[in-house]
Amino acid sequence: MWNWLRLVKDSVSEKTTGLMRMEFWKKTVDDIYCDSPPQQPVALELWKAVKRHNLTKRWLMKIIDEREKNLDDKAYRNIQELENYAENTQSSLLYLTLEILGVKDLHADHAASHIGKAQGIVTCLRATPYHGSRRRVFLPMDICMLHGVSQEDFLRKNQDKNVRDVIYDIASQAHLHLKHARSFQKSVPVRAFPAFLQTVALEDYLKKIQQVDFDIFHPSLQQKNTLLPLSLYIQSWRKSY
Predict the structure, then answer these.
(1) Residue 170: is its pLDDT beyond 80?
(2) Can you give the residue ranges of every domain in the chain?
(3) What is the predicted pLDDT for the residue at 19?
(4) Which residues fall within 8 angstroms of residue 65, CB to CB, at 6 or more apart?
(5) Can the keyword Transit peptide be found in this entry's annotation (predicted)?
(6) What CATH architecture applies to the domain 73-240?
(7) Which alpha helices (DSSP H) does 87-197 contain, by range?
């Protein structure tokens, strides 16, 4: 379901079609919680998961509602708007993951909130070259304006210092959320840690972008880190995130 929702925006040419697909998922979730899921493979698996783990409907609906609002091809007005989007999508997904793991803990919820926001910010950064190739820019406008950078600068792949300053500010916010999430580490139940292993990939990207002096278009940022699986294993073995 998550991949389907994520791909709706890029797979439809008209907003109306996207809205129809979102309405389908809203009704599907409603039907699932009425114990009458549609006979559709993804919906049936989601219904089984809801029954097995007693998943909270609110988190599912937040993901759909936020994806629906995001069908508009508009840049985020400010970093808070990007963080709100990340909270309602990425963090909501983490709250559901914690429920599947049987974790009910306030500190784990706080960590999930910050990790979800970091994930949303990093995803926005990583997707900038792809969006630029489609003549779109979604980076927060307030930070761009602060440094005197226009959307056209990103479309032209401008690498001036003020463009890199925009990326630095946004990446720093993601790093701050990771730092906040890890400040709860001693209080978070160990069984919650598997939900948070994505911090390994997030930190890897943030380190790489720092190494290229925040050049968002540097080719190395699009290359896979072949050592990432090993890093994930080590982090899991250490029981940390």
Answers:
(1) yes
(2) 1-71, 73-240
(3) 86
(4) 88
(5) yes
(6) Orthogonal Bundle (1.10)
(7) 92-100, 106-126, 128-133, 141-146, 151-155, 161-182
